[in-house]
Design goal:
244 residues; mainly alpha; MetI-like fold; 81% helix; elongated
């Protein structure tokens, strides 16, 4: 019984949870979502550009893009975040000054751009070649056809996978604690870790975990729903065509 009480006090101390929840919500949740959204925007834009390089017929363009993908998919995320967030300012490359916040956004963004680049590449290559031929036949240039015809369809086809990467980004924001965020820049994990270190109790980390789940679990179900709708769409169209 004593062991169970110790377990409850260590991980599920309601008083400690109540004490830390206001800061987790007002500071941690806000910063976690801001970091995730901006990192996702960075990753989507860079990932789209990267995907176009990956499908290029010019090997001099394609090879560096594949190298980028291999490197940033192969490195541990925490190492990339540290090298960008701490390494660049130490090397004298500090476009954002001393604030670690924008470096965290860039670090997560360049990691996820590697994954999204591959996702978008697979979406582009999954389309029938007749789409490009039809666009070119009406006078579009190759670049116009890619941006106006191919890319929008490819993004739609890989929308569930793209949304899933956002869920991963939300969780990866917990790694930016090692950049030494300012008090008002701390995300969920940083706040919970600081509170746990000060009190010797891990209930704050459990509280942060609950908030992460409140964010990610509904998003996961949304991804599954969107994926199901996209897969059922072509079947529904085919069935309606057959009935007609």
């Amino acid at each position: 019984m004593t062991g169970l009480n110790n377990l409850i006090r260590t991980f599920f101390d309601l008083e400690e949870m109540v004490n830390v929840f206001p800061t987790l919500i007002t500071v941690g949740l806000r910063n976690t979502l801001v970091l995730a959204v901006f990192a996702m925007l960075f990753a989507v834009v860079f990932g789209l550009l990267l995907s176009l390089l990956l499908v290029s017929r010019n090997i001099a363009v394609r090879a560096p893009a594949f190298l980028y993908v291999d490197v940033f998919r192969g490195l541990p995320a925490i190492l990339t975040i540290y090298l960008v967030g701490q390494g660049l300012p130490i090397a004298g490359i500090a476009p954002f000054g001393r604030s670690p916040y924008p470096y965290a956004v860039v670090a997560i963004g360049i990691i996820q751009a590697a994954y999204l680049g591959e996702i978008f590449r697979s979406g582009i290559q999954s389309l029938d070649r007749s789409q490009m031929l039809a666009a070119r036949s009406v006078g579009m240039t190759h670049h116009q056809a890619m941006w106006l015809i191919i890319v929008p369809q490819a993004v739609r086809n890989v929308l569930p996978a793209t949304m899933n990467q956002f869920i991963i980004i939300v969780k990866e924001t917990s790694l930016v604690y090692l950049l030494g965020l300012f008090p008002l820049q701390r995300e969920l994990f940083s706040i919970a870790q600081d509170h746990a270190a000060n009190t010797g109790n891990l209930s704050s980390l459990v509280a942060a975990g609950i908030i992460y789940c409140i964010i990610t679990v509904p998003l996961t179900h949304l991804v599954n729903y969107v994926d199901k709708r996209l897969r059922e769409g072509p079947k529904l169209v085919a069935a309606e065509t057959a009935e007609a």
